[in-house]
Amino acid sequence: ANIGGTWGWVPGPQREQAVYAPALVVFVGDRSSQGAQPAGGTAPNIGWFPLAPREVYQPSYPVSRGYFDNINRSNAVIAPAAITNVYNNTNVTTVVNNSTVINNTNVTKVVYVNQQVAGAVVAVPARAFVQSQPVANVAVVVTKEAAISAPVAHVAAVAPIQQSVHGGAAIADARPPAREKPVVALTAPPPAPVSFAAQQTQLALKPGTPVDEARRAQLKPAVPTEAAPKVSVVSTAQTPVPTALPPATPPAAKSSEARKAEAAKANVAAGDASKVDPLKVDSAKAEAAKAEVAKAEAAKASAAKVEAAKADAAKAEAAKAEAARVDAAKAEAAKAEAAKVEAAKANAAKAEAAKAEVAKAEAAKASAAKVEAAKAEAAKAETARVDAAKAEAAKAEAARAEVAKANAARAEAARADAAKVEAMKAAAKAEAAKVEVAKAEAAKAALARVPAVASPTARASSAVSATAPASAPKTDAEVKAELEKKK
Q1: What is the arithmetic mean of pLDDT over 129-147?
Q2: What is the pLDDT of residue 463?
């Protein structure tokens, strides 16, 4: 699941032992590489993304119903009804939010959670996929739009090659020395498995589908290597099965004296049989019958003892088995506890590693923030310097403007002063003209007041003076003095 931009594993159900699966992913077709540039060729690409919680895994290989249930029930928390629906239905065309049946085959549109997450789909060229090359070296870029529109599949439709089986590493040249080790067995070993080279043709016919048992049985098995041990099969004689059951207890061993006494008794009985009295014979028979009954009773008692011994032995074996079972259970519990401890240690190590990664990321963020802050400070300083330079330039420009204004004001004042001087001069000239006019008027008036008895010469002079061009204006005193002189 992608949580806040970080990928992490989602725990499975509690009290369930995880069942191994080869690839809990969903593959996407070649259209997932739209917009991507394959590394070193134009071959189609193969992409995949991980299954999210509550999504049912569908193996590409034949499995039983029990395996299908276990593989999904142990690795994720999935409702049993959803698993049953996925197993039984194979023609569903659409699944929304993974809450209904996911198709195993013939699916045209399936909506998965991680298919919608940016960066979830990883794609490599098909050639690199078949050759088991490292993904980091050949991965191609897949856009979110291409990942969403790509068709999904539950197996990569490619045919494997020999390098797919051995991996991307170089094939080792060193081989262990061959040893002759004869083996004697009662049964012949199973035939050698079918080699990959023999199966490769069948795999190429149906890319992405494993060879079934029927087709594999038709292929030739692999030729045994020289290093394989030679097996000699020996046969054993069959022991006949006994028809009669053995006695409950074996008879006790007799001494040689007892055997001689029994033989003597048998001889005497055989020789004196004709001489025996019938009453004695009957008594002997009665004694023999009693002896037989006694023997039967002893045999029953012995059989009862044997049965009791067998029962005791069975009880002892049962006790041993129970003790062994308890010990095995304790051992399994100890192993499980050790596994839990190891898992806890591994989880703790992963948590510590995750914390370290987070700390590194935080340190990197802090360092990047410091660098950005330094850049921001430098930018602020540069902006302040530029603003200061602009302010200084504005001040200088304002000072120059002020000087220009002052010079213009002085020039204007000078022009005004010059205009005033010119005006004063013009006023002085006008005033002088007025004075001259006044003088002329006064002269005329004075001439008009002169007596008519003046001599003709004086009148002529006056006429001449009147007709003469006007000279510079004279003051009143000068006019009076001139008039007195003329009188």
Answers
A1: 90
A2: 52
- The 10 Å Cβ neighbour count of residue 44 is 18
Coil vs helix vs strand at 124: strand
User: In this structure, which amino acid lies at residue 421?
Assistant: V
Secondary element (H or E) of residue 45: strand 45-50
Q: pTM for the complete prediction?
A: 0.42
| Whether the Cβ atoms of residue 164 and residue 132 lie closer than 8 Å to each other | yes
Which two tokens mark 53?
């919680």
Task: Answer yes or no: are the C-beta atoms of 94 and 109 closer than 8 Å.
Answer: yes
Supply 253's token pair. 């061993």
At 184, phi and psi to the nearest 5? -110, 125
Q: What is the rounded radius of gyration, in angstroms, for the C-alpha atoms of the chain? A: 67
Instruction: DSSP letter for 152, please.
Output: E
Poorest-pLDDT segment among 38-47, 127-136, 185-194, 409-418: 38-47
Q: Which amino acid is at 126?
A: A
Write phi, then psi, for 149 (nearest 5 degrees): -85, -10
Q: How many CB atoms lie within 10 A of CB 202?
A: 18
**Assigned token pair, 205:** 């016919």
Question: Model confidence at 270, in pLDDT bands (50, 70, 90)?
Answer: low
Would you give the end-to-end CA distance of the chain in angstroms? 143
Closest Cα partner for 121 from 82, 153, 94, 163? 153
Please check whether residue 455 is in contact with residue 419, taking contact to mean a CB–CB distance below 8 angstroms: no
For 455-487, give the DSSP string. Answer: -HHHHHHHHHHHHSPP-S---HHHHHHHHHHH-
The number of C-alpha atoms within 13 Å of 113 and in the hemisphere containing its C-beta is 13
Q: Which two tokens stand for residue 322?
A: 């129970």
Strand order in the sheet with 152-153: 122-125, 45-50, 25-28, 152-153
Which residues, 6 or more positions from 73, have their beta carbon under 8 angstroms from its beta carbon?
A: 13, 16, 80, 83
Residue corresponding to tokens 């509550």 = 54
For residue 277, give the H/E element and its range.
none
Task: Return the H-helix or E-strand segment holding 14.
Answer: none
The alpha carbon torsion through 156, 158, 163, 169 (nearest 10 deg) reads -40
Q: 232 - beta bridge partners? A: 184
Q: What DSSP designation does 116 have?
A: G
Cα–Cα distance between 375 and 378 in angstroms, integer?
5
Beta bridge partners of 185: 233
At 7 the three-state DSSP class reads strand
Query: Which tens digits make up the pLDDT trace of 283-300?
Result: 666 777 777 778 778 878
**What 3 state SS string does 204-252 have?**
HHCCCCCCCHHHHHHCCCCCCCCCCCCEEECCCCCCCCCCCCCCCCCCC
Cα–Cα distance between 485 and 350 in angstroms, integer? 144
